[in-house]
TrEMBL record:
Annotated ranges, domain Creatinase N-terminal: 1-117
Presence of the UniProt keyword Hydrolase in the record: yes
Pfam families: Creatinase_N (PF01321), Creatinase_N_2 (PF16189), Peptidase_M24 (PF00557), Peptidase_M24_C (PF16188)
Key words, A-Z: Hydrolase, Metal-binding
All copies of domain Peptidase M24 C-terminal, residue ranges: 519-578
Limits of the Peptidase M24 domain: 298-509
Annotated GO MF terms: metal ion binding; metalloaminopeptidase activity
Protein name: Xaa-Pro aminopeptidase
Sequence similarity: Belongs to the peptidase M24B family.
């Protein structure tokens, strides 16, 4: 920084594809500071180094940053660029701020530039300071990619490209450049293993009315796959050619997504090309699951429910007989999932939080933090699987013994929130923040709350976090539409004590029409019993009790045919009506 006259250097948690989960090569924040969370921004000046992150990571960040020289700066608003205001207040005219444009989205770069440049601060988005000092930096992954059959996806690649071209025609743009990996995977019906837990392949896609080009490391696809892509109208070029290609684009206009395109790509587009900034058409298209995908997901949920049932039965019967830890039970759960048809990987690192670790919403056990389980207290397990026929994400809390009244009340109140959200009937064009308030209402009534969103979209054998819809307090102007799969996961967290979260995935469906308009509701997709021994029944209304009993009975009917007689008896006891 001193050599290049840089007063402040910004390191975002991202890669050239603006991914949430990163290949090892792009885990720059972890290499620099030791913080391994999936959301944060480092800002380094000559006399300060800080990590800006949100409430999900406060405890984790404080632990991981201890002794590093980096300080934790707590975000007031999740995903906000509050570090820009901090820089604005501390830097004077003529100061220089820099970042690597390959790691910053266009939206982030614009926020930095638009806030600081009018103050006379120089902003340079083409500075990579890590490349020269990161010894032994991991190479880009070289794992093979593969194509999915139309019978799995329900729609051919050529048909999806045609839909994108219709959108381009509607927006009156000539071309479209796609950087986000899940959009690429959905559009081309391709999957890979380049990012842990996310079945994506590193690449870019360029689409016009006349051509479609995939930029991917050529060794990742076999000849048959390349031939099939050519048959679907997709030409394959090398991954490394993408940036040079963009510099030579000779069309009149191009659509890019400012949240999902890195600044370096944006800044490579020739000056004469009009840039239209809006959400990738494929992002809106892929979030609406087709009938084939929905049918596959329903079956996948049954198989995932079998794995979860066997896991909890094993846990109950093994606790006290063998030494179990947060790490060992996460590995065991992955083993149960691996026995199920079509299993590929877990969909994120399992959160097995025992006692006060359950109060860390994004906790991930390490050898240093790993608790040994005892027959006492609460265990929170947030986990999921990637299957070739769908992606799962589920959170359950179970009692290991000696539960307090406070824990039972907290559990019951969270359960009320899950039920209220799941039962919601809402008019078409309802936004996620409205469902968020419905879910939180019974929790707010007790003067309790939680610091994360209530729900996120989920992909089809794709990223477990998928937009554009969200269920959280922010005013995101995206309606919940028929075919969207979203989580409902309220929680309560008492630092130093326990954490509770109960999560199901739901499908938005058309419900009924009346003289007042068309209404929608949710179909619950997740199939795993909800523990009733933690329920404080007098805190529930009869409608909540009826929903819980009906749900658990439905779980038994769906899962028991795939269980052994002993497993079915165990599950029958767990799903008894209260």
């Amino acid at each position: 920084m001193k050599e290049q006259g840089i007063d402040a250097y910004i390191i975002p948690s991202s890669d050239p594809h603006i991914s949430e989960y990163l290949p090892e090569r792009y885990k720059c924040i972890e290499w620099t500071s030791g913080f391994s969370g999936s959301a944060g921004t480092l800002v380094i000046t000559h006399d300060f180094a800080g990590l800006w992150t949100d409430a999900r990571y406060f405890v984790q960040a404080a632990e991981q940053l201890a002794g590093t020289g980096f300080e934790l700066v707590k975000l007031k608003v999740q995903a906000a660029s509050e570090y820009v205001e901090w820089l604005d207040q501390r830097l004077g005219e003529g100061a220089k701020v820099a970042f690597d444009g390959n790691l910053a989205s266009l939206l982030v770069a614009q926020t930095v530039k638009n806030s600081l440049e009018p103050r006379g601060i120089v902003v340079d988005g083409h500075v990579d300071l890590l490349g020269a000092i990161w010894e032994g930096r991991p190479a880009l992954p070289q794992v093979k990619a593969y194509l999915l059959e139309d019978s799995t996806t329900g729609q051919s690649t050529s048909s999806k490209i045609a839909e994108v071209r219709k959108a381009l025609e509607k927006y009156r743009v000539e071309g479209h450049f796609i950087s986000s990996l899940d959009d690429l995977a959905w559009l081309l019906n391709v999957r890979g293993q380049d990012v842990p837990c996310n079945p994506v392949v590193l690449g870019f896609v360029y689409v016009t009315q006349k051509e479609a080009i995939l930029f991917v490391e050529s060794s990742k696809l076999d000849k048959e796959s390349i031939v099939e892509l050519e048959h679907q109208g997709v030409h394959v070029l090398d991954y490394a050619d993408a940036f040079d290609f963009v510099k030579e684009i000779s069309i009149s206009s191009i659509l890019i997504d400012p949240k999902r395109t890195c600044f370096a790509i944006y800044d490579s587009i020739p000056a004469g090309v009009k840039i239209v900034e809006r959400i990738n058409p494929s992002t809106s298209l892929k979030t609406i699951k087709n009938k084939t995908e929905i049918a596959h997901v329903r079956n996948t949920m049954i198989n995932d429910g079998v794995a979860m049932t066997r896991f909890f039965k094993w846990l109950e019967e093994t606790l006290g007989k063998e030494e179990l830890s947060e790490i060992s039970i996460a590995e065991k759960l992955q083993g149960f999932r691996a026995e199920q048809p079509g299993f590929v990987d877990i969909s994120f690192n399992t959160i097995a939080g025992y006692l006060d670790h359950g109060a860390l919403p994004h906790y991930h056990a390490t050898e240093k933090s790993n608790y040994t389980l005892k027959p006492s207290g609460l265990l929170l397990v947030d986990s999921g699987g990637q299957y070739k026929t769908g992606t799962t994400d589920i959170t359950r809390v179970v009692s290991l013994g000696n539960i307090t009244q406070e824990e039972k009340e907290d559990y019951t109140i969270v359960l009320k929130g899950t039920i209220e959200g799941s039962q919601a009937i809402y008019p078409q064009n309802t936004r996620g923040y409205q469902i968020d308030a419905i879910t939180r209402r019974p929790i707010w009534e007790t003067l309790r709350n939680y610091g994360h969103g209530t729900g996120h979209g989920v992909g089809f054998f794709l990223n477990v976090h998928e937009g554009p819809q969200v269920i959280n307090p922010t005013n995101v102007d995206i309606p919940l539409e028929e075919g969207m799969i979203t989580s409902i996961e309220p929680g309560l967290y008492r630092e130093g004590k326990h954490g509770i979260r109960i999560e199901n995935l739901v499908l938005s469906t058309n419900f009924k029409s009346s003289q007042f308009g068309d209404f929608m509701n949710f179909e619950t997709l997740t199939i795993c019993y909800i523990a009733t021994d933690l329920v404080e029944k007098n805190l529930l209304q009869q409608s909540h009790i009826d929903w819980l009993n009906s749900y658990n009975q439905w779980v038994y009917e769906k899962v028991s045919p795939l269980l052994t007689a002993d497993e079915a008896r165990w599950l029958k006891e767990k799903t008894k009506a209260i």
